[in-house]
Amino acid sequence: MKSIITASYSVYFNETAYKSIAQHLSVTDYSKIFILVDENTKKHCLPIFLQNIASDSTMEVLEIPSGERHKNIATCTTLWERLSDLDADRKSVLINLGGGVITDLGGFVASTYKRGIAFINIPTTLLSMVDASVGGKTGVDLGSLKNQIGVINQPEMVLILPQFLKTLEALEVRSGTAEMLKHGLIQSRSYWERLRLKTDIHDIDPLIYESVVIKNKIVLEDPTEQNIRKILNFGHTLGHAIESSFLANADRQTLLHGEAIAIGMILESYLSFKILGLPLQELKDITATFIDRFGKIAFTNDDISSILSLLKFDKKNSHGHINFVLLEAIGKPTIDVKIPDHLFNEAFAYYKEL
Ligand code: NAD
Fold first, then answer.
1. What separation in Å is there between the alpha carbon of 200 and the centre of ligand 1?
2. Is 141 helix (H, G, I), strand (E, B) or coil?
3. CA dist 166 → 45, 170, 173 (Å)
4. 83 in contact with ligand 1, CB cutoff 6 A
């Protein structure tokens, strides 16, 4: 697979990935190499990575506990202190080997330690391969509010090694497919159609590749999210609010990112049908695809009130308005759509009746 060139770095796949990082480490004079993992990627991915990378350099492993609940400033402080204790200087590099929590948090720790050290991302979940691999968003949550603290900063390189997916839990794989399906909905009907028929990860490499190409094309056109890049937020405005609301409520199960945005995409497709005339058949196809894959969550009226009140924290808001990305049709998004309040409850009523 050819590497994908982003604004400032390349995304390398499979065997090219190992060669490229070995070459990069040999020509770049890093003073120290750190690898950030959680307990799962330490067990399942680190041994494979170390076996395959042809480098004699010593690498110091930094481990944090897995999970979104640890994607916070306290974990960053622990890592900044560890780096400092281990004499990391400005010429050090941090290799983030893990899912989106590791690449987001590790990218932020590297971007801020001593005003910024180099980092390399090796996403090990499907979600982080197809989504967090491009775009340079790094950061952490603030309490239960997702991704409120962070910076946009680019890694030196990204390596995508789909062999890591073999040990990923089925629910996590499913979560990643939500972002891939989104790429089809906002950009390519053909991709959407091919992907929605695919139910396992057998031979998934070309589809991962295509997702990264779609995301990269959008980000290259609008790196600072002034315009077209906003389409990547389809399903995320309500999806993030649902994710945050469940994260904040101890009685609720935690929803995986993909599970929350799958619901967000159903709700926002309903809004698209009401406001932009998304054809009814397309609304039905989108709804059926996500319900078949992800099942349904029962929302109480309290859940819905909490979700709607969280919308105001969405980072895409400006001047007190909540801006939505909706679909005129599959593959044809429209940005900056304002929604009358009563339609939110109507969208949840549509979802509840499914
Ligand atoms: P995650 O990093 O929590 O990983 C999910 C689980 O899988 C964890 O328990 C992890 O330890 C485990 N795991 C990871 N790789 C594994 C492997 N190969 N085998 C076995 N277990 C493995 O979650 P995620 O779904 O990868 O990412 C979600 C996060 O990514 C969210 O915080 C979200 O905000 C962020 N995100 C960022 C961007 C971006 O553009 N920066 C885009 C999308 C999502």
1. 19
2. strand
3. 10, 10, 10
4. no
